[in-house]
Amino acid sequence: MTSDARFASLVSLACHDLRTPLATVHGFARTLRRIELTDPAPRYVEMIEVASQQLAELVDELSLVARIEAGLFEPRLESVDSLGLA
Q: Collapsing DSSP states into helix, strand and coil, what is residue 70?
């Protein structure tokens, strides 16, 4: 196994281990949104939700970069509605 493959494996394992607690934090924040809270709690819950979502996206991007670097990513062609992007 090359050092790139070992690194990708380590990053993949770390990403996997981070996803579970992040999903738990995000899920509890969504649950708290359903409860009537007094100020400033709703703002804190929103901050937790946003931060956990941003961290989850960062973990996903890190995982993707590691797979690309290790040559494990296979791109696929898709049609794109270019007018919808504008």
A: coil
Segment of 4-13, 28-37, 65-74 carrying the highest mean pLDDT: 28-37
Q: What's the rounded Cα separation, in Å, for the pair 3 and 25?
A: 33
Fold adopted by 3-71: Helix Hairpins (1.10.287)
Q: Is the pTM of this model over 0.85?
A: no
Identify the three-state secondary structure at position 64. Answer: helix
Q: How far apart are CA 37 and CA 61, in angstroms?
A: 34
CB atoms within 10 A of CB 11: 19
Give exposure, 15-28, as e/b (b: 16+ Cβ within 10 Å): beebeeebeebbee
